[in-house]
């Protein structure tokens, strides 16, 4: 099979495309060379998938005004392969070539980070969830089924950006191979195969890898002849590790962290700024190239947020906001950290920095009166019959909800255990809500009471997927009920499963269905309307709700959860309109409507 893969490589060679102002970007022994002269890359990471296309230029200009001369960008494979074999690199904020061209128009170089795995606190680390339909799939290695999916992704993406390499007059100066592979595995053939796939598809600029500055990570994750990225590299000791691994190529700090990620139930992450300043001063003093991860985070709209898990029962889903305590806030505003870094960069480079672009306007909306209009129980699709529960992916569903239903025969009360609920489950008996089960911690048993209203009581388990794990060893992370359900040790059989993807198309169809009085069980849709005389960014305050999802004019803003820390969801101006606007809230626990409103910031 491996020979077949390399035959694929030979088929997809790229053609040279004429362009204006080609330059050479090469690897010296200790520094990067632009047309043969040393160059220091000061990069800010921005993810086009997390930012409305209308704001791409503004965010790039903000990075430039902070002193950056480069933009680093993760590309999320699963955001562009919208279903197996169907790719979208053109619509909305999926137009990667346009993003790269805007970087060039703003005078910025580009570090291209295409994966196929990227981590990034993004759902499944950027890998397509369709891979999880294969029961014994192995990812990020030479498993032929995984590599069969990787090959067309690299081919399609290379077609989009091949002409945008610096040697053809574009801004792309380096391409990263995989991401922090030394933290995951040690398949050296896999890493080299990825590099050769990019080469065979016309990528001619230098490559780099990115790993933690430890010997075992660098040994497993780096490639001969590729620059060494350090996540992060902030001291002489870190760079010494890179020199030990390969003294013939330059190293740089490929992820310098001005902020950090936040999970549901935590406090907002606010890393110490003094340690950041010390690290950046070292890099600037020693003319080391660096990339701020992230300079601007954006938003995990819809169901794109990922999760961490450092043991099978320790599950930590990421919040919707990817503000990251970054120098540029989620709404695109400069922070105190931004101005500190701007002063440092100006001081050490001696360059006059451009003025900041005008800020994007933020607005307050009128208070919005909501009404209860629909129940998820009234819009159930035809069921799929399964002997035992199967996860969402088996039924071609990413996340959203899955309802599992069975009749209780034999045991009808007692200790009900859901074996590996992924990730949040509501248990009902004969339509009555009993309890919730959250995956984190491994406490998956509830007491099922006696209910003699039916000879064979009906058990319903409504499961919400909250983001596929995106890092480390437990990434094979299917959603829904992943094994079985037992009652007093007896395995319950013969299930009906109702897929409820909760994407924009599903919600639109659900709200069109006329069902009369809403069912009063948990799982209600609420809708309200508000009128705007002018548009602007806003943050919808969901503090009167419990747990669910929000849709504005058909756009899925993401998840909210009362445990915090996030109680407000960012809505860009481009998703609003003058005149009448619609907002829909789906809540798993709240049965009565409550008002909400839009405010000008996340934390007022």
Please tag this protein with its features:
single chain, 604 residues, alpha+beta, TIM Barrel, Jelly Rolls, 3 domains, eight-stranded parallel β-barrel, six-stranded antiparallel β-sheet, 11 helices, disordered N terminus
Could you tell me the mean pLDDT? 95
Please indicate the count of domains. Answer: 3
The largest sheet has its strands arranged as 4-5-8-9-10-11-12-13
Shape: globular
What amount of the residues lies in strands? 25-35%
Radius of gyration: 25 Å
Number of helices: 11
Q: Class of the largest domain in CATH?
A: Alpha Beta
Poorly predicted segments: 1-19
Q: How many runs of DSSP E, i.e. beta strands?
A: 35
Characterize the main sheet: 8 strands, parallel, barrel
CATH fold label of the largest domain: TIM Barrel
Report the CATH architecture of the largest domain: Alpha-Beta Barrel
Secondary-structure class? alpha+beta
Gap between N and C termini: 57 Å
CATH superfamily of the largest domain: Glycosidases
Helix content: 10-25%
General description of the model:
With 604 residues, this protein is of the alpha+beta class. The protein contains eleven helices and 35 strands. The protein has an eight-stranded parallel beta barrel with strand order 4-5-8-9-10-11-12-13, surrounded by five helices. Strand 2 and strand 3 (37-39) form a beta hairpin. Helix 1 (2-11) runs parallel beside helix 5 and helix 9 (273-285) packs parallel to helix 10. The chain is globular.
